[in-house]
TrEMBL record:
Belongs to the class-I pyridoxal-phosphate-dependent aminotransferase family. It is an enzyme of class 2 (transferase). SUPFAM superfamilies: PLP-dependent transferases. Signal peptide: none annotated. It comes from Pseudodesulfovibrio sediminis. Its EC number is 2.6.1.-. This is Aminotransferase. Residues 30-369 form the Aminotransferase class I/classII large domain.
Length: 385
C-alpha cells in the first residue's frame, strides 16, 4: 500500500482536549476543557493591528520578526524580569509559543536525544518532541506543593540527556517555581551541560503575591536557557498566533532559520498590534489580569471543594486539577464524561497530563472564563452536591 499516513500520525490523533470539546458541544455544555482565555482584547492591540494593515504592513517580515516588536519584547523582558536582551540578535518572533518550541526542537535537538520533563506536563511539549523522535523522560512533581528534589533529576539523566523543560507558571498544576527550585535546576543543568527550555506563557498569571522568576536570570544560566512566551494568553489573542523565544544569538539564528522554514514569519500587522500593546500597557494592566484570575480561581476552587472534588489550588496560570476519585468511573476519562453528563461542564481527564497512572485520579478545569460563563459552570457543578 503506498497511500498511507506517516508513522507519526497516531501521535496527534487522540487529543483529550479536542475529544472533550466535541463531547461538550454534543450536549450543549460549558467548555472548561479548552485553555482559551475570555478577556477582552485590549483596544490598543486591536487598533494597532487594524491601522498596521492600512499602513501597508501586509508583506513578509524578517524571519525573526519586525524590529519594533523585537524591541518591545526586549524592553518588556528587561522591565519585568531584569533580563538584558539584544533585540537584534536574541529575539525570535514566532507563531505562538508553540512555534517557538518547535523551532527550538528542530534547531537544537536530534532524533534519539532525551529531554527531562516534569509531569503533570503540557501535552504539546511531549507530542512535539515525540514527532521528532526525541524522548521525554518524566520527573513527577509530588502534590500538594508539586515538589521534586535533586535526586529525582539525577535519576532521570542518561548520556542522551540534552535538555530539561520547565513551564512556570505551569499548565496544568499552576506551579510557580521558586528561586530555590530554579537554583537546583540551574545547578543541575550546568553540571550536566544541558539546555533549559522554559515556557513562560503564563508569566503574568501569578497569584498570592508570588513573583514569576525567569530561569535565564539565574547566575550562569543566560547562555543555556531558551525562554519562550507569547501574547496569546495575556492579550487574549490565541488566534493571532504570536509568540517569541529569547536566547543566546548562537541559538537564536538557527532557530530563526527553522522558524523561516516552517512559518516564514509571524503575521505582519498583528506584530504591530502586539508591539503597541507591549509598549503602551503597563504594570496596572498586568496586575489587573492577575487579580481578575485570582478572584476567579478562589470562587471556582471554593465550588469544587463544596461538591467534594478537592482542588489543587494553583499558584499561577488558569487551570485547576481536582480529585475525582469520589466520582463514578474507573478512569479519569470516565469520570470526566460522568461529570459532563450530570452537570453539562466539560473538563480534561488528568491522564492527558501524565505518562503514568497518577493522572487517572484527577481532571483539569480552565477557569479563565467571562464571569457569567464561569458562574453558569459553577451553578451547574453545584448540582453534584
Ligand atoms: N504553552 C503552554 C504551557 C500552554 O498552556 C499553551 C496554551 O494552552 C501554549 C504554550 C500555547 O501558546 P501559544 O498560543 O503562544 O502557542
Amino acid at each position: 500500500m503506498s497511500l498511507k499516513v506517516s508513522k507519526r500520525r497516531p501521535l496527534v490523533a487522540q487529543s483529550e482536549i479536542r475529544n472533550m470539546t466535541l463531547e461538550c458541544a454534543r450536549v450543549g455544555g460549558v467548555n472548561l476543557a479548552q485553555g482559551v482565555c475570555d478577556l477582552p482584547v485590549p483596544q490598543v492591540v486591536m487598533d494597532g493591528a487594524n491601522e498596521a494593515m492600512a499602513d501597508g504592513y501586509n508583506i513578509y517580515t524578517r524571519f525573526d520578526g519586525l524590529p519594533r516588536l523585537r524591541q518591545a519584547i526586549a524592553d518588556k523582558q528587561k522591565k519585568y524580569t531584569g533580563m538584558d536582551v539584544d533585540p537584534e540578535r536574541q529575539v525570535m518572533v514566532s507563531a505562538g509559543a508553540t512555534g517557538a518550541f518547535y523551532a527550538a526542537c528542530l534547531a537544537l535537538l536530534d532524533e534519539g536525544d532525551e529531554v527531562i520533563v516534569f509531569e503533570p506536563y503540557y501535552g504539546y511539549h511531549i507530542v512535539t518532541m515525540a514527532s521528532l523522535g526525541i524522548k521525554p523522560v518524566y520527573v513527577t512533581l509530588e502534590p500538594p506543593n508539586w515538589e521534586f528534589c535533586a535526586e529525582d533529576l539525577e535519576k532521570a539523566v542518561t548520556a542522551k540527556t540534552r535538555a530539561i523543560i520547565l513551564n512556570t507558571p505551569s499548565n496544568p498544576a499552576g506551579k510557580v517555581f521558586d528561586r530555590e527550585e530554579l537554583t537546583l535546576i540551574a545547578d543541575f543543568a550546568q553540571a550536566h551541560d544541558i539546555f533549559v527550555f522554559t515556557d513562560e506563557i503564563y508569566e503574568h498569571f501569578v497569584y498570592d503575591g508570588l513573583t514569576h522568576i525567569s530561569p535565564a536570570t539565574l547566575p550562569g544560566m543566560a547562555r543555556r536557557t531558551i525562554t519562550m512566551s507569547g501574547l496569546s494568553k495575556v492579550f487574549a489573542i490565541t488566534g493571532w498566533r504570536l509568540g517569541y523565544a529569547i536566547c543566546d544569538p548562537e541559538w537564536a539564528l538557527p532557530m530563526g532559520h527553522f522558524n523561516d522554514l516552517v512559518y516564514v514569519c509571524a503575521a505582519s500587522p498583528l506584530q504591530i498590534g502586539a508591539a503597541k500593546g507591549m509598549e503602551q500597557l503597563g504594570s496596572e494592566y498586568y496586575q489587573g489580569v492577575s487579580d481578575d484570575h485570582q478572584m476567579k480561581r478562589d470562587l471556582f476552587c471554593d465550588t469544587l471543594r463544596d461538591i467534594g472534588l478537592t482542588p489543587h489550588v494553583p499558584k499561577g496560570a488558569y487551570y485547576t486539577l481536582a480529585d475525582v476519585t469520589g466520582l463514578p468511573g474507573r478512569t479519569a476519562k470516565e469520570s470526566a464524561l460522568y461529570l459532563l453528563e450530570k452537570t453539562g461542564v466539560a473538563c480534561v481527564p488528568g491522564s492527558a497530563f501524565y505518562g503514568g497512572p497518577v493522572g487517572e485520579t484527577m481532571v483539569r478545569f480552565c477557569f479563565a472564563k467571562e464571569m457569567p460563563i464561569l458562574q453558569d459552570a459553577m451553578d451547574r457543578l453545584r448540582k453534584l452536591a
